[in-house]
Amino acid sequence: MPFSLDPSTVAVCAAGALAAFVVVAAAASRFLLARIVAGVGAVLLVPVTAYCTLVAFTLMALRCDETCGTPGGSGRWRDARGAWQWDVQFLVAGVGAAAVVVALLALAGRRYPAAVASAALATACYVGWAVIWTG
Hints:
The protein is an all-alpha fold and 135 residues long. It has helices spanning 7-27, 32-62, 71-74, 85-108, 112-134. It is built from five helices and no strands. Helix 1 packs antiparallel against helix 5 and helix 2 runs antiparallel to helix 4.
């Protein structure tokens, strides 16, 4: 394999997505301090989301080079240039990034149920991305 994705990167993306859900859920609290902390935390999650999406885009763009084997060679999809997972992993990460943006906008507009739902979608997307990549 010409490149490898560090397991810590996958862990950061999955943990960041889970943190997004927790932060937005805390924002729905009736306590002002919880909402302030949640708002600051949500803004801090934007770089994590951007990083994960950039990694997914880079992986999709690079795919693999001439060292890649045939699909039946190693049995791993990352060793096949035409594997459908290359596009899907980027799509899933992109939907996760969009969901984080929607969650932040909903949080700013005090639409807490929409923010929690969007954060849950982002969490599912980034955990799904980690599963796709490690699979």
